[in-house]
Amino acid sequence: MMGVGAGEKTQDFSGSGRRLLGLLRPQRRSMSVVLVLTVCTVFLSVIGPRILGQAVDAINSGAIAHRLPAGSSKAAVVAGLRARGQTTYADMIQRLDLIPGVGIDFGHVLRILLVVLGCYLVSAGTQLIQARLLNRVIQVTMNRLRSDVEDKVGRVPLHYLDGQPRGELLSRVTNDIDNIGQSMQQSLSQLLVNGLTVIGVIVMMLTISWWLTLIAMIAIPLVLLVTRQVMKRSQRFFVAQWRNTGELNGQIEETYSGHELVKVFGRTPQVRERFEEKNAELMRVSQRAQFVSSLVMPIMMFVGNLQYVVVCVLGGLRVASGTMTLGEVTAFVQYTRQFTQPLTQLASMVNLMQSGVASAERVFEVLDAPEETDDGSVALGITQGRVEFEDMSFGYEPARPLIEHLSLRVEPGSTVAIVGPTGAGKTTLVNLVMRFYELTSGRILLDGADIATVPRAELRSRIGMVLQDTWLFHGTIWENIAYGRLGATDEQILAAAQATFVDRFARALPDGYDTVIDEEASNLSSGERQLITIARAFLADPALLILDEATSSVDTRTEVLLQQAMAALRSDRTSFVIAHRLSTIRDADTILVMEHGSIVEQGSHDELMQARGAYYRLYMSQFEGAAVEQEGQPAGV
Amino acid sequence: MLLRLVRRHLRPLLGLLVALVAAQLASVVCQLYLPGLNADILDKGVARGDTSYIWHLGGWMLLVTIVQVGAAVTSAFFGSMIAMSFGRDVRGAVFAQVSRFSAREVNQFGAPTLITRNTNDVQQVQLVVLMGCTLMVSAPIMMVGGIFMALREDAPLAPLMVVAMLVLGVAVGLIVRRMIPGFRLMQKRVDAVNRVMREHLSGVRVIRAFVREPYERQRFAAANDDLTQASIKVGRLMSALFPTVFLVMNVSTVGVWWFGGHQIESGSIQIGSLTAYMTYLIQILMSVMMATFMVMMVPRAAVASERIEEVLQTEPSVRPPETVVNPDQVRGVVRFDDVAMQYPGADKPVLQGVDLVAHPGETVAVIGSTGSGKSTLISLVARLFDATHGTVSIDGVDVRDMDPDLLWGHLGIVPQRPYLFSGTVASNLRYGNPDATDEQLWDALAISQGTDFVAALDGGLQAPVNQGGTNLSGGQRQRVCIARALVAQPRIYLFDDAFSALDLATDRRLRTALEPHVRDATVFIVAQRISTIAGADQIVVLDAGEVVGIGTHEELAETCPTYQEIVESQRADAGQAA
Questions:
Q1: How far apart are CA B299 and CA B302, in angstroms?
Q2: Segments forming the whole domain that contains residue B139
Q3: How many CB pairs under 8 A join A and B?
Q4: Looking at the domain assignment, is residue B327 inside a domain?
Q5: How many alpha carbons fall within 13 Å on the CB side of residue A136?
Q6: Is pTM, for the whole model, over 0.90?
């Protein structure tokens, strides 16, 4: 079976392959033991048939001798046979170590068989230890690779993660690393075992007959040629299979995600038709891929049998002429059997290795992504929370600036509200304060210190954040609140929960604070989830607070609670508040109206209302609907 | 479950199956015949130095090999045909079944799991069918044939063979049986690693904001180490597998020579037959091993097939009528008559006691807190669900009696979650009306306030749209969704909280532009904001599935406490603003 992403072309097979092997370096002691054990295993399993051949000879000659007249010498028997014209038979007996009339020496046979048995037992033992050790080496290496990627995720700039589809990155951590592990485990041990077996078998064959060995070796180019040809063809179909599978998955995903729309817009027949088409196509290519790749075995079998016949014919001639014993030929025949199989496996290993290296390249790509610029080293003093923007510009791409030449001074303890249409740069502005992104030019100062010179961890530990997207992890409510501050006491956590109304609903739950927030957090309403994130920020007790659309996905009743919770959170802290609903930010000390990355208006609510500018227009458009009763002007459809 | 699913979907492939078994049979017979030939070559040819005999038999052997290769190739062909056709058919069946599902079944399962069941799960079962076609069919034939042939070569060695088979079967079975829970544990740990990583990625801003990277690293390391431990454990068992198999095989070989040696001396058997016997033994042991391996794959496929069967056996709750009754002319009079809707197994209906008539040209607004049943109410019109009590009728005909295509042809729906299909802006807009002209599309966009941003897109109407519309912002998506419904020019519009992602100014402009366009249509609007619905002809106020008020804004503001509460919470702002 093919692994994940099998059949993909690699960019730099040998370079990436070497780097992959380099990952094993810390385990090189174990790897050398693996190597030694593999050599032992192969040596023993290769030598086994050779020794067994001696037993066969002993049995054979004993059986022949048994039928010869007792008492006469071997020379006499041979001479007798020659005299009767049975020259081939005579030659054969000439070569055998036998005493006419004496049957099989079972003591001798038993000794040989015991030696063989010993060989096999020891080889099973070394094979077992080798496989275990290799397994451990690979698993430990994969463990390190996974944590390398995880560490990397912690160090790359946010915009790198923004640009990566989440599923894709995840699949690199799991599927790809899994595939690397599997293909390494298989290919490493197979390469070693099969490679050494082929060499060992050739050596053993040479000790029997170099001449026959030469004949048998003709199979090598034949095997390689056939395997390569078949692989090349099947590869094409496998690529098509993976592509079609991906496309079909995409179709299914799209149809199921838009299930209601497909139905109501009457598109079911078309969608079905498109699906059937792709489905049939997938069946066709996967059948071909499967079929073509399964051709290797039968063809190899044919090559093997061809080899067998040739060896038998030539071996027969040798036995007849007395230049080889039957035992030697039997052993040789067994070796040829042992020879084609590892060769085939070696040839088909190429595919597995390609798939593994392709996966490795995808993982390396992540590991090689540029990291965040150097951290600063300036320590922040006791933070008051004064924030200054000095002629600051920023763009995700330098060519397309989002915010240009923005300057602003925020006094400690004040609340700054940022309003404006979607895409005006509100979220970008607060992300810059968190130093999630680096400025293109200008500076942001926190209590007089340029935040670019302050270590990110230190800077962020002074800032609390509540986002519209309520991120909670798989754990209890308690654990999720405690996340806000390392080492917070139970009293502090409880106090945070009480101040932010989490306490109210948490106690009402059957498991209270121990309620596990499940993956989709379907057991909590979005308002309740949001309250937990507020409690988390409350516990962190930051000097600076950022609230980004924290109430927009909550219905009106819960919102009242949220507003109170956030008011508790905001007191005595410098806060940046982004909100759609202007009602929530009326009492802010400063309101910034942003449009296209710059601040177009700035002032308190009353000032801005009097100015009758952008803020006024925004405000009136929001409230005329709700104020309809007073104005007697029904709006709406 | 696995057996039932496989049996049902293999039945149409019976012809292929017969061909497969025939080819396998031929292949196995040849495979079993070959060692005998080999033995003869050794015994009667090589041992006696009779080259012409070797040539003769060798030619015969190659001929048999060719037949065998031909049979193997043929069976590989049929095997892959069967497995892949099976996969295709099951995929098709699941897809067709889900197409029949109503929103209720889709929600019950959840779209992600339905996708997995339709793809990965089918692949799992397909793999077992493929393995079955290549191994399961041949293994028993090989075993029976091998035993038969081996016994024909020499009956007295039979006990040795039986012992070897038993030892191998038991040893491999024991290892495999311990591996299965190991694999299951490993899969769980993989999921855990996945979950921690997914959480890290989705919460990266929060994690960085709270400077909890070290904690995340710890969490990941714990999950990672757990996984490694489980993998090593499974790997340990796996490491034991091959040495065990080879040991049993090799020891049996030694045994064959030891016991066989005595029989050679007594002349009851020849060296060549002993070699043949050994080949049979190895072949038999190989099939025992393969059969045991097969067993290893079955549990996973069994779980997968259970999940597939679950989909296939779920009856769609919304079924097309047996006898279709259509209204003479669809005008758009929508009537709810004591309608209730309750999920099976739920102890409370999500909606009950709804009585309501909406005429063409009227706007009915639905308001209420989250979970009050607003979306359910309008979904009943579209038959995304069926009422469990009472009737929803259009122009006097129960929607359950109407031809679904006719019903849907007259509906324009804008879902709560603005979803777009991959393609272009134009292909999305034409979703409900493939023949619409570009002009019509632009008209619809003008109403949905989408003209500016679509015109600014690279390619305009032909600008590419990703699956789900992820390359557009939420507000843009919503505007395209509204335009899509407008292009279809339906009699009845269903707006399910369709204006929530728009800022209030855009919301207002949109509604003003919409008004003349929908003058003759029946309009249902679900909304959160009072401002969006204050002008509606009727407002339905829902609270926990019950209608607590129906009337105009003015009436409800006087009489309905729930409505007053909602107005109050939103007007608190406006009052202060004025």
A1: 5
A2: 2-313
A3: 481
A4: no
A5: 14
A6: no
